[in-house]
Design a protein that fits this description.
With 158 residues, this protein is an alpha/beta fold. It has a single domain, classed as Mannitol-specific EII, Chain A (3-Layer(aba) Sandwich). The protein is 44% helix and 23% strand. It has a five-stranded mixed beta sheet. It comes from Breznakia pachnodae.
Length: 158
Amino acid sequence: MITDYLDESLIWLQREYHNRDQLFYDCAEKLYKEGFVEKDYYHALTKRENEFPTGLDMEEYAVAIPHANPDVIKKDFIVALTLKKPVKMRKMDDASTEVDVKTFFLLGLKESNSHLVVLREFINMIQCKEVIDIIEKTNSTAAIVEVIEEYCNKEDKN
């Protein structure tokens, strides 16, 4: 299911942002210009993240899976985004604590069933340190597609 929404044009590598809001704003602008989201996506994404943080501390690394409510999504998408330097995100399981995140997967799915399935797949995938190591270290969008496809194909067989 993840691979259904994965597109190399939405894999943005080794970016630099000072904070979460700058990252969200830049992503929102790009997604809006490409016709994936409504103009108010940035506000919806920020509001959702403030209410329900998505930072996941995996002990050796951290990942975030931000998403907005489906009413601001025009076309389904997944953005894979890596940073040169981490930004602070509030933890999903303890909003009073922040975690330094370098790997983001922004989900934009209109249908809630698809959203839940993809979210579950991401939760499983990000627990695989080898996959995240490749994603964080590569400068190749094709390599990210390949590692995610390989992981998903392996999981489908299990």
